[in-house]
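for the writeup, i need someone to sanity check this before i put it in the appendix. the sequnce is what the collaborator sent (i think, or maybe the updated version? ugh). structure was predicted straight from it, no edits. if anything looks off just tell me and ill rerun, i have time this weekend
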Amino acid sequence: MKRLLISQIFAAILFSPLCLAEMHEFKSADGKKTMWAEVMGYDAETKQVNLKLANKKRITSPATAFSKEGQEYIEKAAVLLEAGRNLRVEFEDVENLVSEKRNPTNGYQTLKQSNGFEVKVRNNGKSVFNGLKAEYQIFTSVYLDPFQDRPAKTDQIKYGTALFDALSPRNEIEISTETVPMTTIKRLPKSQCVGGT
């Protein structure tokens, strides 16, 4: 069985210029009224925005009913809504061997590796996505003593970002994450151990 000093590597990726699924304070165009709402949809042709209010009620309103800052927020939210529906993201785990050491006396092989991810992002929509930022997190578990039956471990997170200016429809872009050093320890076959048969 493969034993890892650092294991369970996986990543999460989030595209943003802002965070959706959050309430935003909208001011009316004349600045006299305010309300908290979440952008649920936007029709760029009719300039109608679908909002969910703090009391969970949904309304449709012309975007021009809100301040200039509110209209800009709606347009950014619309880009992210479209991105969420039309971006396809694929992860590929990349392992690069740094060094290998075999110890026939104790019967173990130690591999030092550099692990990361190659991420392919494809635009399956009809619009160009400009100025997207990919924020990612790489999660790892570090075993303090991997040879115990129930090894103690600590979890770690590595944060990173990748920026890309434009992603045209039906095109894709590749992002490489930072790497995490890993050490793998596994048993050698008996035939490779001192005194083995």
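The mean pLDDT is 81. Residues 68-86 form the longest helix (19 residues).
thx in advance!!
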